[in-house]
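Work Package 3 (structural annotation) set out to generate three-dimensional models for the target panel prioritized at the project kickoff. During this period the team completed the workflow that converts sequence records into discrete structure tokens, so that structures can be stored uniformly alongside our sequence database. As a representative example, we reproduce one entry of 69 residues exactly as it appears in the project archive.
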Amino acid sequence: MEPISHNNSNIISIDRTELRAAKCDKCGAKIYPTSLLEPHLTRHRRRQRWFNAEIRKLQYTFSHMRNIA
């Protein structure tokens, strides 16, 4: 494994194979290799859907608490 050059942090060289980085626009993470960017974005979307579902549950609970009081 070759050392990482400090002048180009978007490329990793392993056994004479260069892996280019893809940058996630949502969190700014560098993803090596670029083919793993789509699964990374899928996790962001899944987490956002979970978060929205939890927010809806809380909104429902709070609205019923207001109606009871």
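The chain has a mean pLDDT of 84.
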